[in-house]
Amino acid sequence: MRALRRFTVRATLPAPLQPLAQLVTNLRWSWHPETRDLFEALDPELWRTCGGDPVKVLGEVSAERLATLAKDRRFLRRLQDVVDDLQEYMTADLWYQSLGADAPQSIAYFSAEFGITEVLPQYSGGLGILAGDHLKAASDLGVPLIGVGLLYRAGYFEQGLSADGWQLEHYPSLDPHGLPVKLLRDKDGAAVVISVPLPEARTLHAHVWRAQVGRVSLLLLDSDIEENAPAERLVTDRLYGGDEDHRLRQEMLLGIGGVRALRAYCSQTGRPQPEVFHANEGHAGFQGVERIRELTVSHGLTFPEALQAVRGGTVFTTHTPVPAGIDRFPKALIERYFAGFGVPLDQLLALGAEEDPTKFNMAHMGLRLGQRANGVSELHGQVSRHMFRDLWPGFDEDDVPITSITNGVHAATWTARELVELGTQRSSQGDPAEVEGPVHFDGVDAIAAGELWNTRRLLRGRLVDEVRRRLRETALSRGAVESEVGWTDSAFDPDVLTIGFARRVPSYKRLTLMLKDPERLKALLLDPERPIQLVIAGKSHPADDGGKQLIQRMVQFADDPEIRHRIAFLPGYDIGMARYLYWGCDVWLNNPLRPLEACGTSGMKAALNGGLNLSIRDGWWDEWFDGQNGWAIPTADGVADPDRRDEVEARAIYDLISTQVQPRFYERDRDGVPARWVEMVRHTLRETGPKVLASRMVRDYVQQLYVPASYSARAMADGGGYAPAREEAARRMHLLANWGTVRVAHVEATGAGDTPEIGSTLALRAEVELPGLSPSDIEVQAAYGRVDDADALHGVTTIPMDHEQADGSRHWFTATVPLERTGAFGYTVRVLPRSAHLANPAELGVVTSA
Ligand SMILES: *Cc1c(COP(=O)(O)O)cnc(C)c1O
């Protein structure tokens, strides 16, 4: 018989052990070794069988064991120490508190997925893990962030393999009562219920679960509750499952329900309502629409007025350099779902307008709702400015107002404890979070090469043990019998150069590029003197049969008895498996189709552990490859035929491995240490380590985006009356309505003579016609720089021109341009809108050039 439902009956904690209940609900244990040690000490054997999940351990530990510990003075002292440490962590003044009271007191961070620990499987890949690392680093820095997401009852799928290597998906059924989350309740103890209107007079209800991530609260909405009709109960069933309708309902719950959950949570707890709203990718875009609706109701603002107020405090991060990866809905679907929502439909539709008039584009909405926007690496910033340039017509790509903040990873989560304890993350400059400018982990200089190498070997050995365990388990699950899996006991070798490749399996990541020349790969694996071993993992989206075929090819290749002791595809890639890989791999391989990897973070995690990257120069690696922290795979960018491009790039990988990687790894000194290899490891830890930190990333977000956004939001609200928002909306409407009449009629230059010399100046005088506008509405700029054969300007400098004279609607502006460089020089004059409330001159997307 199958059970209808399952749950865990816990032993009651004896009074002296009560603090354990508090420790287990604060997910800081997931990155705090001393807290984990304490849970392990509860029952070391159980800790092992529960896979290091303290929630499970607490659920299963026997009452007798608890009774013993409740009288164990040493254990109780340890418990008290850990509790005190958490208390200190929760209340101390940290970096953010040094910014003063003017910094925003509350910031909301929306994401469709959060990867915090494998115990809370609410993520599919990089986007979610980044969101988790963002929360953890914000907590470490004292940033008053509140996360908002959904609680998926089946999370993302668990991956298995069939006998012939086809991906199998299994959806676990998560009971929130068995997760480290707490239900948000009102003063009377009743569960808070959030409601979102749906078409045909239906309503979607949700409960709010709160996960505590250090100092940061994460609110997760859950629609699987009795108040809902059966269809609505399923809205939060799975991450990225279902059709468009289902996805739209999820995104409405995330955005609209998320804002409502925040309102409820802040008023329950007395925390200030957020001033800044950060949307991590387009999925959460409806949060802005809900905030607009709120202001139209509470303050009687019109939609455009409310939009001005909301934009100021909104930050949007785009993660998708692949146009096909952008989240879009049929416009008709939006019309149906928002017909009765309470905002003018045409204005809402305009937010998501794109090239295809039948589509509603969530990224475009994100950019129109967020006054500040960014990509996630320098290269991705550039790609995004290109991809979204049509939203700012008339501007050069470089002027498109999308900046970049390069992703980072949470060191305490991803670094092997042994390395941290050796001192690989110490800096004589102080805590990297508090130092402006480049930081070096120079503590690594004090570690002897032999010691560093021994630790790397230890971690490689731990990975090998884990690979053997998983190989065995996988072989059995694919139908092998005990007598056939003996080979897994000696598969892999703790002294063989170990290369890792693990990530989701969309086609641009090219899982099977390394199989381009199978014989060549085989030769590398079986090299008698200098072999390599390869650990591979990754999930394909359940609806992507192409991805599953790639996995199958890989699995079948690795099944070959001749090489299976040197190459393994391990199913079930998740945070729990990933850690072993980042700790133990010598080389981290990444071969995306440039520039389709927005940032990539797995290579950063490898680098924090002294792993050397072997990667296409894409995402973060384009920025921080420095010649000593690994190898750059040359790209065949210009080659149009994809097959040919793969061939060229695959060959480059084989060549790099055989001519650079293998020799360096196997070249040993008298003590058996590969000195030159260890120097690269040391360099990576020292120089790349401090760059890839999530604390650096969050600090960049605070300084470059959150603080300025809070100022904009406050300027618009002006104490709550929103007068500036009203004025600004009117002003922008007037500007845009009349912009077509602006014309640069004439420009003349005097002063430099026929053959200008360096050091002289050019007097520019421009006549501008402004029939519908006044000079205070605009800024006239002289733009100048080097000029190429096609008259395109490069390295442009702009200076404002002064209003000199007016005659009716004709105005004259002047500026003096210095001639500071020799060579071809060009200039032009352009007119831009002017407003104190612009974060960027390109913001309104209008410009008129001479
Ligand atoms: C870091 C990480 C990712 C993202 O890695 P990318 O390099 O960005 O593809 C995905 N899954 C897990 C489990 C991770 O730890």
**Would you identify the CATH architecture of the largest domain?**
3-Layer(aba) Sandwich
Number of domains: 4
Helix percent reads: 25-40%
**Which hetero compounds are present in the coordinates?**
pyridoxal-5'-phosphate
Beta strand %:
15-25%
Write down the CATH topology of the largest domain: Rossmann fold
CATH class of the largest domain: Alpha Beta
**Morphology:** globular
Low-confidence segments, given as residue ranges, are: none
Span of the ends, CA to CA: 80 Å
Specify the oligomeric state: single chain
Number of helices: 27
Q: Could you name the CATH homologous superfamily of the largest domain?
A: Glycogen Phosphorylase B
How many strands?
30
Mean pLDDT, to the nearest integer, reads: 95
Rg, rounded, reads 29 Å
Structural class: alpha/beta
Largest sheet: 10 strands, mixed
Domain DUF3417: 13-120
GO molecular function, one term: pyridoxal phosphate binding
EC number: 2.4.1.1
Modified residues (N6-(pyridoxal phosphate)lysine): 605
Explain what the structure shows.
With 850 residues, this protein is α/β, with parallel strands linked by helices. The chain has four domains: 15-91, no CATH class; 105-407 and 701-720, Rossmann fold (3-Layer(aba) Sandwich), CATH 3.40.50.2000; 415-692, Rossmann fold; 742-849, Immunoglobulin-like. It contains 27 helices and 30 strands. Strands 1, 4, 7, 8, 9, 10, 11, 12, 15 and 16 form a ten-stranded mixed beta sheet that branches. Strands 19-18-17-20-21-22 form a six-stranded parallel beta sheet, sandwiched between helices. A four-stranded antiparallel beta sheet has the order 23-24-28-27, with no helix packed on it. Strand 9 and strand 10 (216-222) form a beta hairpin. Pyridoxal-5'-phosphate binds next to helix 7, helix 21 and helix 22.
